[in-house]
Amino acid sequence: MWNRPIESTIRSHRFAMEEPIYHTCWAFMRELRTHNDTKRIYAIDPYAEVYRFRDNLYGIFSDNIDGKGDAWSYLILGPQKALLIDTSFGLGNLKGLVQELIGDRELLVVNTHPHPDHSGGNAQFDQVYILAEDAPALRRRMEEPLLNEKILNDDGTCRYVDFELSDMIKPVEYEIVEIHDGFTFDLGDGYEVEAIRLAGHSKGQAAFLDKQNRTLFPGDDVIAMRVGIGSREPGTLREFRDNMERLAARLEEFDSIFPGHFVVDIDSTAILDMVDTLNLNPAKVKKLLLEHGYEVHERFPNRKSRDGKEQVSYEQFYQELVNSCCGANLLTYIGKVSLQELYDAGFSLGEVIIPKGNCCGIFSSMYGGGSLLEMELLKDVRLKLEVRDYHGFRFRLDSENSKYECSIKHVYGVCDSFFGEKIGLVAS
């Protein structure tokens, strides 16, 4: 767990994180809380910190009670109407807070996507807009209890954030209005906010473009600390890349990006970095690897034919990646495993050796999707089973009957001969 080093007068108190958050995020929040003189905590909702980022733009910051990363909601005040982008987790009186900020304006509520840290407060409002592709998932959310094992320990105490359980919003039905890519909200006197489908973090993940303030609200698709793509119903990376390139072509329309988590008010040129990453620009990839302390040998081969110097051709890997689902974030090596060797090693492994000739590809056992897993290894691959930061390796025996994960056999229907030569195991 990661202890929270930032002091706050917010009523909820975070005492643990599910996973480490980058130091730059904590540094940003510490700076924001210390020096931003617009910060206020309203008596009507003491679970939220409110910041005024523009004359008519408020950022509403709240603890994410499932331990994954504190969430931002945004409120745009138009001449006649106000637009609330995301409703956080449903802790506290968000409706009362928003009403205090907007005065007599009509309120419109939208979700960038249906995940509970962005839609948990929807039940406080009569009507919520969302892209049609994500509407089915949002309807399912109405039937799911918010107080579950992700939030509470077995004894009923809070797992990550201390708060009053009675202040959690109870799930009730509300009207879901389906919108489509390009839909425009008119907040009065020609003040327009456009919905743009990105479809990466979720099937209908939307960005909202405030044309007056020249600001973009991309939800979890564009985050300063990492790319947040992947969901239960993901599209392909190719689809996400194409949408990001479409967004990059409109950079003259916005200057700043306000993501759903972590650092906000990011320069719009970050979109170009996203596009470079999604296109696996070799020079950019090599530069980033070196910056993070990883060794890079030779250069990235950008050709279809192999000359024996690389494990897998760059072109083939690229095609595998862009055609995989957004949730398939694991480069997977396929091979048979000796149970006897596992027992002999005491199930404590320090290294695995994938023999030449075996296959690899992109696959997610969580989401049950990926690529064709047909990239042939041209040499043995040695993998040390160690984790550094968020990077590392995962050793998994394929199971056809897992309740929570999908097996390669189940997804692709392959026979045993597909798994290639036996993997070598080295005890730690």
Summarize the structure.
The chain has 428 residues and is α+β, with helices and mostly antiparallel strands. The chain has 10 helices and 24 strands.
List the helices and strands and how they pair.
Blueprint: E1 13-14, H1 23-35, E2 48-54, E3 57-62, E4 71-77, E5 81-85, H2 94-102, E6 106-110, H3 116-119, E7 127-131, H4 135-141, E8 161-162, E9 175-179, E10 184-186, E11 192-197, E12 206-210, E13 215-217, H5 237-248, E14 256-257, E15 266-267, H6 270-278, H7 282-291, H8 314-322, E16 330-333, H9 339-344, E17 349-354, E18 359-364, E19 369-370, E20 375-376, E21 381-384, E22 387-388, E23 391-392, H10 408-412, E24 424-427
Parallel strand pairs: 5-6, 7-9, 13-14
Antiparallel strand pairs: 1-8, 2-3, 3-4, 4-5, 10-11, 11-12, 12-13, 14-15, 16-18, 17-21, 17-24, 18-19, 18-20, 22-23
List keywords for this structure.
6-stranded mixed sheet, 24 strands, Metallo-beta-lactamase, Chain A, 10 helices, 428 residues, 5-stranded mixed sheet, 2 domains, alpha+beta
